[in-house]
Amino acid sequence: MEIARCAALLPQTSVAERHRIVCRNVSVKRNTEAGNYGIAGNVLKELERLAPPQFKEDVRKKISMCEEKEFQNADKELEEIMKRDNGIVKFCWKTLEWIEESHLECPYCNALFNESDTVDEDDKCSYCLCGELVKKNSIQ
Ligand SMILES: [Zn+2]
Questions:
Q1: 108: exposed, middle or buried (C-beta count within 10 Å: 0-12, 13-18, 19+)?
Q2: How far away, in angstroms, is 133 Cα from ligand 1 center?
Q3: 4, 28, 64, 113 — which has fewest CB within 10 A?
Q4: Full-prediction pTM beyond 0.85?
Q5: pLDDT tens, 83-129?
């Protein structure tokens, strides 16, 4: 379940397009295994658009499989969180926990962090090493 949750977040990371395809494939595999057919289905629809022609048939087959399961998700909590913000889950890039209302954002790469003992305002972003973290008080 935890692996599926982490995998559900993967497609949202800022990486090169060819890596995004890999992230999406991992997300589909883990979420299918965890019985999250709605989440896998959404990722598959993006993959259908991005995948090279020789993989499109396989992607369509997997979409049909999710359709047979009526795009149901076993992880209802994750489903709720994904619905809340159009499928974009805000999560802490350090702990992979859901982002809290009061959090820190990197103005350079838009990485998000929950405040903690080790992450504070004005710290250098540990993801891009360029931005200085700014405090935000809203999830939107
Ligand atoms: Zn950054």
A1: middle
A2: 8
A3: 64
A4: no
A5: 876 666 788 888 888 888 899 999 999 899 999 888 999 999 998 99
Rounded distance from Cα 107 to ligand 1 centre (Å): 7
- Cβ contacts of 42 within 8 Å, gap of 6 or more: 87
What residues have their beta carbon closer than 5 A to ion ligand 1?
106, 108-109, 111, 125, 127-128, 131
What is the model's pLDDT at position 87?
Answer: 66
Q: How much distance in Å is there from the Cα of 97 to the middle of ligand 1? A: 18
Q: Which residue has 């838009």 as its token pair? A: 110
Distance from C-alpha of 59 to C-alpha of 40, rounded to nearest angstrom: 11
Please check whether residue 47 is in contact with residue 63, taking contact to mean a CB–CB distance below 8 angstroms. no
